[in-house]
Amino acid sequence: MGKMKAGYIGFMDRNKDMWDQLAEAAKIGFKGTEGGEMAIRQCADPEEGKKRMKDLGMEVLTVSTMNGESLRKDGAASLIERAHFLDINRAVMFHGAIYYKKMNKEVTYDEVMREIELLQKSAEACKKEGIKFAYHNHDHEFTTSFNGVTVFDMLLAYAPDLWIELDVGWTTFAGYDPVEVLHRIAPRLSAVHFKDFIPGPMVQVPLWGSTELYNMPNFCSLGSGALKVHDCLKACNEIGIEYAIVEQDFMHALTPMEALQVDYLVMKESGILE
């Protein structure tokens, strides 16, 4: 088994230059980012942006759509066009309908099934173009069931061409063993997000620019919380996952770059990371 690479998503300070922060992350040792498309598109010449990213030694890992609403609006064709422009073969949707239970929104079986149908059609379209279209989970996919079947297993069963970008932090928070889940869905994994949280009381934070506060796990740097970081890394390496992609929805005590440094070093200590 070869060594895995370190990737990340988020961690950007909006008050600082994005390219300066990308350079800092590259200097730490990160080889890829899921936020790279945004930086490239902000360049006056996106082709020059692609070259600039390459010169940093940083790979753009995916193109994305935020949720089912944006997927319906823009269609899989937009993801395909953007992926081809960046010469990558991964796309992802970050928030399923079930995510919005965090905002106290009732989500029905019919709504979930309609979204799964859309996801499958989008995955089929992407597959024809050599692109793996994936779904990024949170906790409610595991904790919400219809007719005795979790939403997570519904996705696997009813969208056979859909890939999974498994977030092992949210999986742990939902009460599941992430190592078991990683091995169980290994043939469907396109990428893995590493996220840690401090067990105990949740914290209240605003979501999606809202002024209303919602209960969320107390996210922290890797190794500071409940996630079995090294066990998950080992499982990913055994499965053949190329990147360990770190994510932290909001900072706990460190700055974004401090957290990235800690995350990289904790993963590096496993001996599995490049």
Walk me through this protein's architecture.
With 274 residues, the protein is α/β, with parallel strands linked by helices. The chain is 42% helix and 23% strand. It has eleven helices and 13 strands. The chain has helices spanning 18-28, 36-41, 46-55, 68-86, 109-128, 140-143, 151-158, 168-173, 178-184, 229-239, 256-268, and strands at residues 5-8, 32-33, 59-60, 63-67, 90-95, 132-136, 145-146, 149-150, 163-167, 189-194, 196-206, 213-220, 243-246. The strands form three sheets. The chain has a nine-stranded parallel beta sheet with strand order 3-2-1-13-10-9-6-5-4. Strands 7-8 form a two-stranded antiparallel sheet. α4 packs parallel to α5, α5 (109-128) packs across α7 and α9 (178-184) runs parallel beside α10. The longest helix has 20 residues, at 109-128. The protein is globular, with a radius of gyration of 18 Å.
Explain briefly what this protein structure is.
The chain is α/β, with parallel strands linked by helices and 274 residues long. Helix content is 42%, strand content 23%. The protein is globular and about 50 Å long.
Largest sheet: 9 strands, parallel
Total DSSP E strands: 13
Uncertain residue ranges: none
Basic shape: globular
Number of helices: 11
Strand order of the largest sheet: 3-2-1-13-10-9-6-5-4
Q: What's the Cα radius of gyration?
A: 18 Å
End-to-end Cα distance, whole Å, is 12 Å
String of helices and strands:
EHEHHEEHEHEHEEHEHHEEEHEH
Q: What percent of residues adopt helix (DSSP H or I)?
A: 40-55%
Strand content: 15-25%
Indicate the structural class: alpha/beta
Overall average pLDDT: 96
